[in-house]
Specification:
With 395 residues, this protein is α+β, with helices and mostly antiparallel strands. It has eleven helices and five strands.
Length: 395
């Protein structure tokens, strides 16, 4: 109960604006000075002039935070006149200590030192005529002055450190939020790339197989090659099953994102081990040469997607039946080199309107610190895609 009784006035005082707080403080210090003036301390009791000076020197405390040096100057002049009249010398002590603390807590160390030296010098001038007793009092009061200035400087430094720590915490929080947003954007971009590569490849294969089946059905209905039609339809079904499985893996992160820093939470990445199945279901005659060993998962996934997109573009834009594609994947000088060439008639990198295929391949390579070059073959008809994917720290 006693703690609650003390806390409520403290909360009420803290809820006031700074000017009202300083006004209340000045009134309390004036009341305390009045009590001290008639009870303890040396010097005579104040008369009408003494009471006027004693009350007046507390008035500037109302502006102590807004103009601490001006307040100190006015109070010092009033205190000098008050002491010259030999009124109770202990009465203004509390107010003078408060304004010295305010000067120290609102200014820098240099200003605090200059003010302290000036106040001590002024006190020495006032007390020098009192002999040894004056020097003793001077040393005593100097200790109080230094103590208040040191306390104010410590509080000021503590507040600056607290403000700096709070600012660092806010910056760190903003950095974490920005990092989280960046990771979300990267994850969305990864999903978009995977969906583009997967759907483009699967739809192209389905279109090619459907065209083959339609051609067989329309070429000679009387001598229908049922085996060829069955093969085409089975290839379409296999492509659909493969696409459905990859879609489930790719979109699983949207249902259960897990830990964004955990690669395993994103599902297994495609890699070099999947190039054989990719070549088998490409919809063209693919000659695959894979001589690379174990590579980082990110590099393997980038190589897989680059080959997948290159095969999709070759089948889509090859421009003729019996298209053949050569895929070469090997390690050389600390990097994985990928080369995909076809003998088609379509130069989809130049003569057609560019889509997102080549851009996606370059982004895949850039994600692991690599590069992609694509363009018409220099040694004959067709198109060529070359990728260089580092295997070191940049990967």
């Amino acid at each position: 109960m006693a703690s609650t009784t003390v806390t409520r006035p403290r909360q009420a005082f803290a809820s006031l604006d700074p000017a009202r707080q300083d006004a209340c403080l000045a009134a309390c210090l004036a009341a305390l000075a009045g009590v001290v003036a008639v009870t303890v301390g040396s010097g005579r009791h104040p008369d009408a002039l003494g009471w006027s000076l004693l009350l007046f020197l507390h008035v500037p405390l109302v502006w102590r935070r807004r103009a601490p040096l001006t307040t100190l100057t006015i109070m010092s002049a009033s205190i000098v006149v008050y002491h010259q009249q030999d009124y109770n010398h202990s009465a203004p002590t509390a107010a003078s200590m408060v304004i010295l603390y305010t000067v120290a807590v609102t200014g820098g160390p240099r200003r605090t030192a200059v003010v302290g030296c000036a106040v001590v010098a002024l006190m020495v001038v006032l007390k020098i005529g009192h002999g040894m007793a004056g020097l003793t009092v001077t040393f005593q009061i100097t200790g109080w002055i230094v103590s208040m200035l040191v306390l104010g400087g410590y509080i000021r430094a503590h507040r600056e450190n607290a403000a700096a720590a709070l600012d660092r915490a806010e910056r760190a929080e903003r950095t974490r939020e920005e990092e989280a947003r960046r990771r979300v954007a990267e994850e969305r971009l990864r999903i978009a790339r995977d969906l583009h590569d997967l759907l483009a490849h699967s739809i192209t294969l389905i279109g090619v197989r459907t065209s083959v089946a339609a051609h067989v059905l329309a070429a000679d209905p009387d001598r229908l090659d049922r085996a060829a039609v069955a093969r085409s339809l089975e290839d379409i079904a296999e492509t659909c099953r493969t696409a459905r499985g990859e879609l489930r893996t790719t979109l699983g992160v949207l249902r259960d994102p897990g830990d964004p820093d955990d690669p395993d939470a994103r599902g297994p990445l495609p890699g070099l081990h999947g190039l054989t199945d990719l070549a088998r279901t490409a919809g063209a005659d693919v000659d695959l040469s894979l001589t690379a060993g174990e590579v980082p998962p990110a590099v393997g996934a980038a190589a897989y997607r680059i080959v997948q997109e290159a095969l999709t573009n070759a089948v889509r834009h090859g421009g003729r039946d019996g298209l053949s594609v050569r895929v070469r994947v090997h390690e050389e000088e600390g990097a994985l080199r990928v080369r995909v060439t076809d003998d088609g008639t379509g130069a989809y990198g130049e003569r057609r309107t560019p889509g997102f295929g080549l851009l996606g391949m370059r982004e895949r390579a850039r994600s692991v610190g690599g590069t992609v070059d694509a363009g018409p073959r220099a040694d004959g008809p067709g198109f060529e895609v070359r990728a260089l994917l580092p295997l070191g720290e940049s990967a």
